[in-house]
Write a structure and sequence with these properties.
It comes from Pongo abelii (Sumatran orangutan). The chain is built from 2 helices and 4 strands. By secondary structure, the chain is of the alpha+beta class.
Length: about 130
């Protein structure tokens, strides 16, 4: 009885293409998670500085890390983050629209944050985040 033939490369088991994609995604998962952690640390630092410079802005930590919506994906596209930043309701300005005719639709108003406030200094991006941070 002849010995069984060894499989040739043409007869080798083919791995589905999706398996290769899954391996590529997994190989990038740990570095992407580290990138997200660094981005989260930078964002929290900036938000804390914003609050220190202007107490009208309040950082919301009540939702914990769930406040950040991360999408681990295989592409290197920029990530989107939900920023947990609130504005003190007492500091809001309400701008009512000019008088409209009844029945023109729902009344709208605009909310704004005053430029000036008692004891508040103006600040710029450089005040909240610099390359040396």
């Amino acid at each position: 009885m002849p010995a069984p033939a060894l499989p040739t490369s043409a007869m080798a088991v083919q791995v589905p293409l999706w398996h290769h994609y899954l391996q590529a995604i997994r190989s990038r998962e740990a570095p992407r998670a580290q990138d997200f952690q660094r981005a989260e640390n930078v964002l929290l630092t900036v938000l804390e500085r914003v609050h220190a410079l202007d107490p009208r802005f309040i950082v919301d930590y009540s939702r914990g890390l769930e406040a950040f919506q991360f999408a681990l994906r295989s592409s290197e596209d920029p990530m989107d983050m939900e920023v947990p930043l609130w504005v003190d309701a007492e500091a809001l300005l309400i701008e009512e629209p000019e008088a409209t005719q009844p029945g023109d639709g729902p009344e709208l108003c605009r909310l704004g944050v005053p430029r000036e406030g008692a004891g508040l200094e103006q600040w710029t991006t450089d005040d909240t985040f610099t390359a040396s941070s």
